[in-house]
């Protein structure tokens, strides 16, 4: 017969598509339920198996016979009990007995070998042999001491599951005591025999060896990063991990080397643009391998740079807090050295990477350190800020620093070091860029619209105009430099913050040590102040001078600021600065060759603004009085100050030609010169002469001699008494700096005398005539013969 064909057909694809979604979900649920039920059954079987193993192991075997023949009575009683228990089976009916036999033949939980892992309904019963083996095993006597067993995992083989046990080892108390004694004895031996300590030489040799290994490792990592930064960017992390060196012998030195190495690496491998985070759209787009590699490099660089800055900040905080860490690797004394290296690295990064990420974070770290109690750290930070101001062409970085400094000064209630405000003097702001207001700045060129072209231009002109505008747009896009508009806007905002800081100090803290720095800053940027504030500022400056609380240098800065204001936009104002002229004329004699000699430079700058640049507002009497007083001042200052003062007199004599009457002894007009009068207009300086020039002509400094002789001759531009170009082309302030004697040496050096000529000059006979020499010798010889003492007479009388 043919096999019966299965009529059930496989459903087609279309039929499967027509199957409802609910039916498919039900099928899936049924399938999951079956799997769960099967898993539950399996877990239940395993749980029963483990319970059976535990019962079989814990069951105590009963001895079959007593080897010593004792306790026969109990054995007889047990046999009688068994007979009594077996009686009900004989009294059962045949049907019940047959039923019990049938049940006994089935594999139920009563007759199943629980130590086996085979299923319950199995035809071949292998458990019978296992029971027989178990019955044949010898029983232990109850009198034997029970030992504690440790149950192990059972072993499964073909015959079934074999339980595994192990006796728990019994440790004698005597052995424990012996072991403890042995351990204490070993500890005593260890204490008695310590590890031999290294000598100082061996310790230094070992330290040098470790340090050399660390240096080679740092050099290898740095060289690999520099050779291929994009591929080896992960080695930056390895190098940065050495910042937590734990070896106390070389920890401090290695950390310093790693800080400097990382700083130089970041300066070399950092790109010249700021790296911004990627957007979600940019991350999801597909890119080339080269672009992906570049992105990974940039992300790794930014993250490592951030962690590096955090490490530097932590070093500075550890030094500030002065608390030892748990590791105790670095001592408290070494914290300052690490902090100085960290601050130096931050300053280098502030100057070298003003365009890169986290520059504002570095500024926030550096500015408070400018006011630090440690002079070395404070000076280091101030110098870095000055260098940043000098090299910042655009003004973006300078504006950020100025904002933080202004907020810091205000937050500390103006109780800061003056060096912080002196950094403002290094701002790179040109007069032509900030002189105009923002409204007067030329607006960018606007291209003509189509309607305007159609009205004013012909068809050919419109065509040419279109090409010209296209070319201009391309040139603008190709131009790399920033626009003048943005630079002027940044400079204007920077100056506004600077002036706000200055005016706050002038208003609220006039007796603050910051006042000299404020006055010096106002003297430099006064020509950039708005005209509306001129009257108020001049009143404040005059009040400060008249109060008498200012030092000589501060009062000079007030005078300099006032005339800078008046020399710029203040020309249009009708203000008489006679009180400032009088103050300067009165305080000139406070200068001398001692501590105030450095103030001569400010005086020279004030004279240039007050007399030379304002020549039209200066009278002849005022010019004569200043020339006379300056000539007198040149007698009791250092040589470089004398040269600067004489150079100023030369310029004034050229600016005011009629002042040459001071070179004549004859008086002009009525009256007598009053040198003690403090009013330059009424001291009658025209009735005196510059006799000081003749004293300066015999000065020991050669340049002072040259200038004095030049002025006595009337300061000619040509002739034998004219100055050389290297002296005539320099300003008074430049000459003052050139011939400075701060190094305590003569400038120019003094010529050395010839030694041979000196020996000849020391011979006294060469100065006398030959006849006179002979007469002196003969006279000396005759006198010696006449007055020769006779000692023989004395010898005879003594006998």
From TrEMBL:
The answer on whether this UniProt entry bears the keyword Ribosomal protein reads no
Q: Please note every region of biased composition (Basic and acidic residues).
A: 52-78, 163-174
**Residue ranges of the CCAAT-binding factor domain?**
555-708
Q: Family, per the entry?
A: Belongs to the CBF/MAK21 family.
What are the coiled-coil residue ranges?
450-488
Compositional bias (Acidic residues): 79-93, 175-190
Which UniProt key words apply to this protein?
A: Coiled coil, Nucleus
Q: Which organism is it from?
A: Echinops telfairi (Lesser hedgehog tenrec)
Region (Disordered) residue ranges read 27-93, 163-190
Where is composition skewed (Basic residues) in this entry?
40-51
Is Coiled coil given among the entry's keywords? yes
Classification via InterPro entries? ARM-type_fold (IPR016024), CCAAT-binding_factor (IPR005612), Noc3_N (IPR011501), Nucleolar_cplx-assoc_3 (IPR016903)
* Residue span(s) of domain Nucleolar complex-associated protein 3 N-terminal: 214-308
Q: Which PANTHER family match?
A: NUCLEOLAR COMPLEX PROTEIN 3 (PTHR14428), NUCLEOLAR COMPLEX PROTEIN 3 HOMOLOG (PTHR14428:SF5)
Q: What is this protein called?
A: Nucleolar complex protein 3 homolog
Q: Which domain of life is it from?
A: Eukaryota
The record's subcellular locations are: Nucleus, Nucleolus
């Amino acid at each position: 017969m043919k096999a019966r064909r299965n009529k059930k057909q496989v459903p087609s694809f279309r039929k499967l598509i027509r199957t409802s979604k609910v039916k498919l979900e039900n099928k899936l649920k049924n399938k999951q339920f079956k799997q769960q039920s099967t898993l539950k059954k399996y877990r239940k079987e395993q749980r029963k198996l483990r319970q059976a193993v535990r019962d079989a192991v814990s069951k105590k075997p009963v001895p079959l016979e007593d080897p010593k023949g004792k306790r026969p009575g109990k054995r007889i009683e047990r046999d009688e009990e068994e007979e009594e228990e077996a009686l009900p089976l004989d009294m059962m009916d045949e049907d019940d007995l047959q039923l019990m036999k049938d049940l006994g033949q089935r594999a139920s939980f009563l007759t199943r070998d629980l130590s086996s892992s085979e299923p319950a309904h199995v035809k071949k019963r292998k458990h019978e042999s296992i029971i027989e083996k178990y019955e044949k095993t010898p029983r232990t006597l109850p009198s034997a001491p029970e030992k504690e067993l440790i149950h192990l995992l059972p072993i499964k083989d073909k015959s079934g599951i074999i339980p595994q046990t192990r006796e728990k080892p019994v440790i004698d108390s005597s052995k424990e005591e012996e072991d403890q004694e042995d351990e204490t004895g070993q500890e005593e031996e260890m204490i008695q025999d310590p590890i031999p300590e290294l000598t100082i030489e061996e310790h230094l040799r070992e330290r040098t060896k470790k340090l050399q290994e660390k240096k080679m490792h740092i050099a290898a990592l740095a060289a690999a990063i520099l050779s291929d930064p994009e591929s080896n960017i992960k080695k930056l992390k390895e190098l940065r991990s050495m910042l937590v060196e734990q070896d106390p012998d070389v920890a401090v030195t290695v950390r310093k080397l790693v800080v400097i190495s990382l700083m130089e690496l970041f300066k070399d491998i950092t790109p010249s643009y700021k790296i911004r985070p990627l957007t979600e759209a940019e991350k999801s787009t597909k890119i080339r391998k080269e672009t992906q590699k570049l992105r990974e490099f940039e992300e790794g660089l930014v993250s490592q740079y951030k962690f590096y800055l955090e490490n530097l900040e932590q070093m500075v905080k550890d030094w500030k807090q002065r608390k030892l860490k748990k590791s105790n690797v670095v001592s408290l004394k070494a914290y300052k050295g690490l902090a100085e290296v960290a601050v130096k690295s931050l300053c280098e990064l502030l100057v070298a990477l003003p365009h890169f990420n986290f520059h504002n974070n570095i500024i926030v770290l550096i500015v408070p350190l400018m006011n630090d109690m440690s002079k070395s750290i404070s000076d280091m930070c101030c110098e870095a800020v000055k260098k940043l101001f000098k090299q910042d062409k655009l003004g973006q970085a300078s504006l950020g620093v100025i904002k933080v400094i202004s907020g810091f000064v205000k937050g500390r209630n103006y109780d800061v070091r003056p060096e912080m405000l002196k950094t403002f003097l290094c701002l790179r702001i040109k007069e032509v860029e900030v002189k105009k207001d923002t409204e007067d700045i030329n607006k960018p060129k606007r291209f003509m619209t189509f309607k305007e072209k159609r009205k004013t231009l012909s068809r050919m002109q419109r065509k040419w105009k279109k090409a010209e505008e296209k070319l201009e747009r391309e040139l603008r896009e190709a131009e790399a430099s920033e626009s003048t508009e943005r630079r002027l806007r940044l400079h204007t905002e920077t100056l506004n913050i600077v002036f706000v800081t200055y005016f706050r100090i002038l208003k609220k803290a006039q007796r603050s040590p910051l006042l000299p720095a404020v006055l010096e800053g106002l003297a430099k940027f006064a020509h950039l102040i708005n005209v509306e504030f001129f009257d108020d500022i001049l009143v404040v400056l005059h009040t400060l001078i008249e109060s008498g609380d200012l030092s000589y240098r501060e009062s000079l800065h007030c005078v300099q600021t006032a005339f800078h204001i008046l020399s710029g936009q203040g020309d249009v104002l009708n203000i008489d600065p006679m009180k400032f002229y009088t103050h300067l004329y009165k305080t000139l004699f406070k200068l001398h060759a001692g501590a105030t000699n450095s103030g001569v430079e400010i005086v020279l700058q004030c004279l240039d603004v007050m007399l030379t640049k304002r020549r039209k507002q200066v009278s002849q009497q005022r010019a004569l009085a200043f020339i006379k007083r300056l000539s007198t001042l040149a007698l009791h200052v250092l040589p470089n100050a004398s040269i600067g003062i004489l150079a100023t007199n030369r310029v004034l004599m050229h600016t005011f030609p009629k002042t040459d009457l001071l070179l004549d002894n004859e008086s002009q007009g009525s009256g007598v010169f009053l040198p003690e009068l403090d009013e330059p207009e009424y001291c009658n300086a025209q009735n005196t002469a510059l006799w000081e020039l003749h004293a300066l002509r015999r000065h020991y400094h050669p340049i002072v001699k040259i200038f004095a002789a030049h002025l006595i001759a009337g300061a000619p531009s040509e002739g034998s008494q004219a100055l050389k170009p290297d002296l005539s082309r320099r300003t008074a302030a430049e000459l003052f700096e050139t011939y400075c004697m701060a190094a305590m040496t003569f400038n120019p050096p003094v010529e050395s005398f010839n030694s041979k000529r000196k020996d000849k000059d020391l011979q006294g006979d060469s100065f006398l005539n030959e006849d006179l020499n002979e007469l002196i010798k003969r006279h000396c010889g005759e006198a010696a013969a006449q007055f020769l003492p006779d000692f023989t007479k004395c010898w005879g009388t003594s006998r």
